[in-house]
Design brief:
Blueprint lengths: L11 E12 L3 E2 L5 E2 L3 E13 L12 E7 L2 E4 L2 E10 L11 E8 L2 E8 L13 E10 L2 E10 L17 E11 L6 E12 L14 E13 L4 E13 L9 H8 L3 H7 L10 E14 L2 E10 L15 E12 L4 E12 L7 E17 L2 E16 L5 E17 L5 E14 L11 E15 L2 E14 L3 E14 L2
Parallel strand pairs: 1-26
Antiparallel strand pairs: 1-4, 2-3, 4-5, 4-6, 5-7, 6-7, 7-8, 8-9, 9-10, 10-11, 11-12, 12-13, 13-14, 14-15, 15-16, 16-17, 17-18, 18-19, 19-20, 20-21, 21-22, 22-23, 23-24, 24-25, 25-26
Helix pairs in contact: 1-2
Amino acid sequence: MKRNLLAILCVWVVWSTVVLYAQTTPQTSHNGGKRPALVRLSGSLGLNGDFFRTSRVRQTAPDLLGRVYSDFTLHLGKVQLQSNILYSSEQNRFQESLNQLGLRGRWRGLSFSVGDHYPTLSTFSLNGTKVKGLSAQMDLGGLFVSGSWGTNGVGKQKDLESGLKYEAYTQDIRALRIGLGKPDGTHLHVVVFSANDDSTSVEGRLQTIKPQQNLSLSTSTSIKLFKGAFQLNGEATGSAFNPNQFGSKIDLTTFSKEQGIPESATSFLSKFFTPTSGTGLSYALKGDTRIRLPFGGLNGSGRYIAPGFSALGAPGVISDAFDWSAGANIGLAKGKVIASGQYSRNQNNLSGLLLSTTQRHVYSANLQLQPVPAVTLVGGFQRMESKTEGEIQAASSQTFTSWNLSPTLTIARRNGRLHNVSFNFTLNEFGAPALPQQGASNFRNVGGMASLNSMLGKGLSLLASATYMKDSSAFSNGMTQGFNAGFIKPLL
């Protein structure tokens, strides 16, 4: 029986930003021009508040949320220091704290991050994981060195009173990248990564999570020719992964035979890594190319992840899968007309070890027009087709189609004030044919948003936006409306 579920969402956003800027008196050069001040301070302090209420049986978010953030930057000659501070009243028991406290710095060829940050050394080693500690990179002419040292998460145990809480061991992370050339240019780099769950970071043993260990060795190469018009990139990663450090110890000779590697290599690996029952070795490969043409460009990429591959520093990587993509873009009328298209294909279970295999095809196209300087039109289309076949369950398929249109109007007054009005309209449709054991899963979503950014004079700007969304499915219908407004003004 179809259930009608009425959801009323009221959103109230109080948003204010304080921009601080101070600098010493600029010095006058010999030719009468202004030279940058020796000491400068700039940045912003923001306050954001949300009010949320729904008539649904289970409310997944608190009634009130508050966030404070800042990104002050201090310039001391050629030295630059920037803070990264975020405090949120939202503390979800099912995930790590959202709060951040960090400091970034830069001086000539040296840059570093202290505190909470998200370093990236390669795709399949350290990529997107939060690290609390120190990361630094140095460009020593033709030699490039970067590294990270810290922890991911704080040891937490289950809340016995509520029975539900985020569980995790403190994870020690060490990573080093070294090689010739800069990462964004022609280079040859080697990356060593280690992640080790500290089993002593919690009392006793967690019931649902086992302490894990990961050690990987990666290579990253890139070739750029013809002033960057042709670029070829490649990465390869070999990984040793232990899913349970509490598992029974295994003989190194037996492990070498099972993995098909020399015993001398296993003996060397055991100095930094402790294999137990269930430990495996695997690898991942990635390559992409870009070609820039006078009127546009071409691009293509491919990625293969072998069965059993796991990377603690790169969440979201799915093993035993291969995907590739190809695309093109073209620009006409001096950039007033830009069109692009992309196709990608993904398939898992290449080894045939799983009970089902999924294939996905994604098509996308985008068009940008600027008929007059004040008006810009952007439109896009995307369609995803997914099909799953298995030995036990019946074959199933899903389709997702999305359309969007975003017109923007920019008005520049003679007094230098800018007024920007933009709109965004979306249509999303999801469909899954009915199976004998379940009903059809069809979904349709229509939404729109309007936003305004207007300079009112004397440094005061008005920011406002309104949203509307209506969705319908075989099980429920819903509507969402929202509005937020704020002002921004420099104090100095």
